[in-house]
Amino acid sequence: MLAHDALVRFFHDPEGDVRGAAATVAAALRGRRPGPCRRTLVALMDSLAFGDALSQLPITLEHAPDRVDELVLTWVRRFVAVSGAASADFARGAAAGARHIGRLLVRAYVQASSPARRSDFLDLLDQLLLLGSYGVAEAINDSDRN
After folding, report:
1. What are the average pLDDT values for consecutive 10-residue runs of the chain, which has 146 residues?
2. Distance in angstroms (rounded) separating the CA atoms of residues 138 and 142
3. What is the pTM assigned to this prediction?
């Protein structure tokens, strides 16, 4: 609790260096079960430090050893809200984060526990395809082959 509360304060710190340092928690949690730190990851996704964690969060979610569907939904919604059309633009850093989206959405779709939740993932995939987000069409095509 104490670490979570401190990180949340740091995620919203006015100093960019402090936010950037706090955002490294995304990489530090790689390979661990996301359940125990779900609140901290969601707080990071909803914070000013989100941009600092943009490259590490999707990798951490990809390497999570168990369910990530709800976290992926939160992350992709925030990513689309923040990056939007920039997710297709290689001149911006958002395209780097976008390349993980397709694989994560396909994984989360498979893990989704209800038709309504699967529909949420399909809606996001449609939205990202319309934006031309890098790597999404390829991830869908790859999932068809597997």
Report:
1. 93 97 96 94 97 91 93 90 65 56 85 92 85 72 66
2. 6
3. 0.82
